[in-house]
Input
Amino acid sequence: MPVLRMGEHWLFFTMNYYQRSRAYYREICLSGVDDHDGVSDIIKCSGFSTYPEEEYSVIIETIRYFPHQFDVIYDMGCGSGLLLNYIENHIGYPLKLYGVDFVEESIMLANKSFPNYSFICKNVVDYKFPLNLPDKCLIMIDPYHYREDDFEKLILYYLQLDINIIIYTYSDVLSGLSYKTIFDFELFKKHKASFCIINNSINTAILTT
Output
């Protein structure tokens, strides 16, 4: 949690869940900007101490599980676009990459770092997809960033759009929550029997329609 100055405590704790989350991740993004030359350390701005190669490689393996190539991939809660860049560099075929995030500073850094991708500055819980989505579209999302009821609504909405979903999170998130696998998130406890779920690691799962 970023250190708040005394006058900021009251404001922070009167915010709602997503206002607090935005403020928190804004501070993380700004913490990666050098005070002297203004240059951004995109890894630190993304909230990582080191590049998350291990988790990203698992996500690539998960994407490759599908028998077809995707035309479009959305990262919902994309931060500075680091994961999308890893996908472009390792997936092995051309595709359009989109990111949605509500932290303006992160989206500004993403647009600067990866101008060939499309980034949208909006809270994921409020984002509605265009009606003309291509058939081969994939959504990636981390449940850690959302209230449980909002995350459930999001997943049900995505499934109604007939879109494949990869739900992923990071190993430090699982350990911090004392979870053994991604299936310890509440969504899976409630809906595991009704989803077509494929699990190929402790921190990723595929939902298909």
About this structure: The first strand starts at residue 72 and ends at 76. The chain has a mean pLDDT of 86. The longest helix spans residues 17-31. The radius of gyration is 17 Å.
